[in-house]
Design a protein that fits this description.
Layout: H1 2-34, E1 42-46, H2 52-59, E2 67-71, E3 84-85, E4 95-101, H3 109-121, E5 123-134, H4 155-164, E6 168-177, H5 181-190, E7 195-203
Parallel strand pairs: 1-2, 1-4, 2-3, 4-5
Antiparallel strand pairs: 5-7, 6-7
Length: 204
């Protein structure tokens, strides 16, 4: 009995540490998207997981009176603190903001093409889509190390996709340049791109 209790405590400690590391990783992405989100916006967090962005945005009161809705392909916990969907067909509302933080790399190109049509239909007039993903041109990012990754997207590819779908590009940039001096020296010598993230913001 005592052994089982110790196992549970260890597992809970490991799970908490994993969650903290994930939150730390995603906070950088959330910071990039925050400037485009206003008080009273209606927001769909596409690929919300257990609700890290909800905790960041709502519980930490980064914005006021945001109507937050979450979507993911599976339910990752029993109860959510916000409206949560696993079926896109059940989402009928239109949104001021749709976020996709570190999501598109899990979606194949042909599926993303169809999904952008759905997103455009569910954005309000002048509503915005915010996307972050890994910068695959950074030699220190091993994209395929994550087995859940199925499709790399470059900044150029994303911008072209958005233009083809009729979105207006608000911002397309590479963010978070490495501060590691050895990586910076390597980048200087090899002319490598050492930004870790891609940010794309488009308007309907």
């Amino acid at each position: 009995m005592e052994f089982e209790e110790k196992k549970i405590k260890i597992k809970n400690a490991v799970d908490k540490n994993i969650r903290m590391n994930i939150l730390k990783f995603h906070t950088g992405n959330f910071d990039l998207g925050l400037k485009y989100i206003k008080d009273n916006d209606k927001l769909l967090d596409f690929g919300c997981g257990i609700g890290y962005f909800f905790d960041y945005l709502i519980k930490k009161k980064k914005r006021k009176n945001v109507e937050y809705v979450g979507y993911d392909t599976a339910r990752y916990k029993e109860n959510y603190d916000f409206p949560f969907y696993t079926d896109l067909k059940k989402i009928k509302d239109k949104f001021d903001i749709i976020t996709m933080f570190q999501v598109i790399e899990h979606i194949k190109l042909e599926e993303m093409d169809k999904l952008l049509d759905w997103i455009k239909e569910h954005l309000k007039e002048d509503g915005m889509l915010i996307i972050t993903t890994d910068n695959i041109e950074n030699p220190f990012i091993i994209f395929w190390q994550n087995r859940a990754h199925v499709q790399p997207y470059s900044l150029w590819t994303l911008k072209e996709m958005m233009l083809i779908k009729g979105f207006n590009i608000v911002r397309g940039s590479k963010e978070y340049l490495s501060k590691n001096p050895f990586k910076l020296l390597f980048g200087l010598l090899t002319q490598s791109d050492l930004h870790s993230r891609i940010l794309v913001v488009v308007k309907r």
